[in-house]
Amino acid sequence: MTKYTVNCSILFQELPVLERPAAAKAAGFDGVEFWWPFAESVPADSEVEKFIAAVEDAGVELTGLNFADDIPGGFRGLLSNPGRSGEFRDNIDVTVGIAERLGTTKLNALYGVRLDDVADSEQDELAVVNYGHAAKAAQRIGATVLVEALNAVESPTFPIVSSQGVKNVIDRVAAETGQTNLAFLADFYHLARMGEKTADVLARYGDLIGHVQIADTPGRNEPGTGDFDFAELYTGLEKIGYDGWVGLEYKPSGASADSFGWNQ
Predict the structure, then answer these.
(1) Where are the domains of the chain?
(2) Global pTM value
(3) Is 56 a catalytic residue?
């Protein structure tokens, strides 16, 4: 049986952040995941405590958490941005500390978008170093750092837009830092938008997959609103032995609480 976890940074936006874990629980889910849930890259201790309490009080598992990024600002990751990588590093211990207290073992570190005034090679070198720092910290609690591909249609300046691109990053981090606790966050919405076939992804990269996320294509709404073959995905995941959570990272076509009819 598929275990779904609700991404409460894209779903339940009608509610304040701290009310979303309870809303997910009320909708029948036992897991939640978040992008960086704070306004600041390094939040105050009181804000961290409030977030942890909201998850614990809701009675849900925090199945995944992003390291600090600036999605509202369009940066899609700070770890490869020379001007802001300090913000990424400053929050590593905060992220790992939250994960340790809530039993979270999947931590997503988004690659940064390309910058006009910085050479690609400089960004790539910095990304490897910072992935290494994040992975070393995560290793202390038995956690895995996830690497995700986005799609170039919606994120044209994002450099990692394929499964092979993710593998290249993971391999380079292992070779240059010795950290091997990195895995593929396979968001099949983004991969499908880039023309990747589900069966091919699972056959070629299945052993790298540490977490799965879904949304229907092409609109990124809930399952049943597009043309993505979810039956093929679930059959394929079972075949490769994936038994982890499947993250619901879709934009609800209406109210979030009304978007789960497909899961009846």
Answers:
(1) 3-263
(2) 0.96
(3) no
